[in-house]
Design brief:
By secondary structure, the protein is α+β, with helices and mostly antiparallel strands. Helices cover about 55% and strands about 10% of the residues. It contains 9 helices and 4 strands. A 4-stranded mixed beta sheet has the order 1-2-3-4. Strand 2, helix 9 and strand 3 (about 210-215) form a beta-alpha-beta unit. Helix 4 packs across helix 6 (about 100-110) and helix 7 packs antiparallel against helix 9. The radius of gyration is 17 Å and the shape is globular. The N and C termini lie far apart (about 45 Å). The model has no long low-confidence stretch (mean pLDDT about 95).
Length: about 220
């Protein structure tokens, strides 16, 4: 059964947009970096780029964009276990939109498997979502504008002046390219807080038979 639920439709759904907005408010209140529309839309676009470049069917590309848009809604309940609570919320929302069960399964499995503590690249949608989510590091995610009171997460994100995810020329590797201001944060500090995420990206890339590489300031570090 064909589904009428599209990424465009999800973006125009007032309830889902409210959950995304309120989930980000929760994270703002407890001092986390930006997880609002800039983040989820970037995740959706990066994840869809990965599947498109690997020639997955158009509907799979659409599903990963929907998963990317909805993946953090569980934060409206609590940061703890937000992947699992978000998956349950997404099930109810998508089921109420009469989305086919097979498609709902793909989306909620990806949402439920995107957080470091419990994540696993179980299929192409979850693998692409993991990579897209964990590689979104950038200055504009930092809410705190007082450099004196920066913690390490603020400092590392703020130090990233440019961030890009792309394939190498023969599509054997996925590459995260970063330009970091080392006067603000060292490369070592980046790995100190993001090592687990990069290991997860490596596992997700392996699902596609790819290597995961990281280039910081023009030097390959992973």
């Amino acid at each position: 059964m064909a589904s009428l639920v599209t990424y465009k439709y999800i973006k125009q759904n007032p309830a889902i947009m409210t959950y995304i907005r309120r989930a980000d408010k929760v994270l703002e209140a407890i001092g986390y970096t930006e997880h609002s529309f800039a983040h989820v839309e970037r995740v959706a676009q990066t994840a869809s780029m990965i599947l498109s470049e690997l020639n997955y069917p158009e509907r799979q590309v659409e599903l990963v964009k929907i998963a990317g848009m909805m993946h953090d809604i569980g934060n409206v309940i609590n940061r703890a276990d937000h992947a699992q609570s978000g998956a349950v919320m997404a099930f109810r929302l998508l089921d109420n939109l009469s989305m086919p069960a097979e498609e709902i399964c793909s989306i909620i499995s990806a949402i439920g498997n995107h957080d470091e503590g419990t994540a696993a690249p179980i299929d192409e949608i979850s693998a692409a979502l993991i990579i897209a989510d964990k590689t979104d590091v950038r200055r504009s995610r930092v809410r705190n504008h007082d450099l004196i009171t920066f913690d390490i997460h603020d400092r590392v994100n703020y130090a990233v002046e440019e961030s890009n995810v792309c394939f190498n020329e023969n599509k054997t590797s996925l590459i995260l390219e970063l330009k970091i201001d080392t006067n603000i944060s060292s490369v070592m500090e980046y790995f100190e807080i993001f090592l687990q995420r990069m290991i997860l990206c490596k596992k997700a890339a392996q699902f596609f038979g790819l290597k995961f590489e990281m280039i910081i300031n023009g030097t390959t570090v992973l």
